[in-house]
Structures are given as C-alpha cells and as structure tokens.
Amino acid sequence: MIHLVRGARLEQIRQARRIHGGFWNMWGAALGVRLSRLPIPSRRLRERIYRLVYGQKYRGLNETELDRPLADFRSLNELFTRGVRPECRPIDSDENQWLCPCDSTVQDVGQLLEQTLLTVKGIEYSLESLLPGEDVRPFHNGNFAIFFLSPADCHRVFAPAAGEIYQVRHVPGRRLLVHPPYQRAEYPVFTLNERVIVRMRTPHGECAVVLVAGWGVGHITHPFSIPLQRSSRKVTGCELSPPLSVSSGDWIATFELGSTVLLITEPQAGLKPVISRDTSVHYGEPAFHFQGLDGVDQ
Length: 298
Known about the structure:
By secondary structure, the protein is of the alpha+beta class. The protein has 6 helices and 16 strands. It has helices spanning 8-20, 23-35, 43-53, 76-80, 127-130, 189-192; strands at 97-99, 104-111, 116-118, 124-126, 143-148, 156-158, 163-171, 195-202, 205-212, 220-221, 236-246, 251-255, 260-265, 271-273, 280-281, 286-290. An 8-stranded antiparallel sheet has the order 11-7-8-9-13-5-2-15, with no helix packed on it. The protein has a 3-stranded antiparallel sheet with strand order 1-16-14, with no helix packed on it.
C-alpha cells in the first residue's frame, strides 16, 4: 500500500521554492536537472561549468578521488554519478560488522522500537510504511542508520555486507526534500517519497537498503540487469533467481543527484553503532560492529 498524505504535492512545491529562493529559481533548477544529461562538447567548458556548480553552488569536489579527470565527464549527470578511485575508499575487511553503504552525513542511527523507527527529529516511521508489501517481521527490534547524500557526495550505493540480493522493489511517490532541516512530522518524507528497496541475506541475517529519492532525483539505477517493471501508481517488485551474490562494498545502485539511504538490519546481540549523528562517513567504513558479552570485539 502506498502511503498518502493530503497536501504533500503542494508541500513539495513549497519546499523546492524555499530551498531555491523563489518560484523562478525553482523552475530554473528543475530545468537544470533535465539539461544535466546533455553532453557538454568542450573540455574547457565542462571544467568551467563543473567548477561553477561545485565550489560555488555546492561544496567543492576532491578531484584527486575522481575515477577519471574532471574534463572527461561529458555531462553533469556523468559527474553526479561518478565513481571514486578504489584506493581512496578501502573496504574494511572485518566480517563482524555492517558497513556504511555510501558517502554521506549520518542523519540518525539507533534501534527500532518493535517495528517503529523514531528519528532524532521526533518523526515516527513504521516498518510497514517504509517497506510496503514486505515481510518486515525479521526487522522487529532491529537496528537502523540514515545516511544523507549531498549533491557533492559520490552518488553510488554499496553493499553493507557480503551476501546475496534476492529482491528489489520500487515504491512510487513524491519528491519532497530529504534535507534534514526540511523534514516535518506531518510530511514523513521516507514514506511519502519514491524509493527502491533492496533486500539482502547475509551471514549476519537480513538487511534492507532503502534508497529514498529527493527533489530533482529522477532515476535510481543499478549496475546490473534486473527484471523490474516500475509503475507510477503501484508498488512493483522482482525476485532475483538465482540471487545476486555480492561482496562487502560492491556497487549496487546509483542516485542521480543527492538523496538518502536507510540501512535496516535484523536484531543482533552485541551489535553496537560505531558512527554518530551529524558526522561524515565514506562507503566501506564500519557502521555497526559486533561485540561479545564481555564487551570485547568479536
């Protein structure tokens, strides 16, 4: 069932107008998103545009991390969806942990209250509303972390553990701003917005990686082929048969522009967060770690 709230579409427009500083700036930004897929013919022009966008409009890029030279990105969308050189994101090899799935800022981290996720902003989300049509029983009293991707972050999402992807679902919805200052209890963005739910089985149990689209995010894609038919009116999904085996830190999805990722895991004794709110993290770094009953790392 899709979660609906009266007035959400109008609130989406209000938020976009506020963050862009007016109605015409909002439409200019929307046009820029559409034009972002067009190739820029000149390498010199590309660099000028990219440095105008990053460093003035958005936080500057660390060009030493890019997977190829700045001028090699033919469009803004290619730059948005860029990769990072592997040596700049070493994947922690300790198997007794869940990893951060993306470059981001940690918005929240904690434990579910039975089947309710409560954010630091006081907004409650039920598992049924976050994961419509899913079997959510494995996640009761589990753990969660919320990762906010800014437009300057790498927009790729990575496996938080080794295991297998067995299901992918698409939930249609709005494009409310996912920026933390704009989140309001009357418009619960993580259940109103379009999202893709990736279900995995791992040695630690099941997890759900929820990719929540935000303002301007028109596509959530995958680096592998899946038979997923998306609809603007109903939840759709597909089972992967056989399941897709992945290693920790493997690339599993991509946002176009920034957004938010939720990691939801089964409850596990001794599982402790090693990240905290409002800190910057990179994919491949530990998010949760298992400790023994004596408090010693397993």
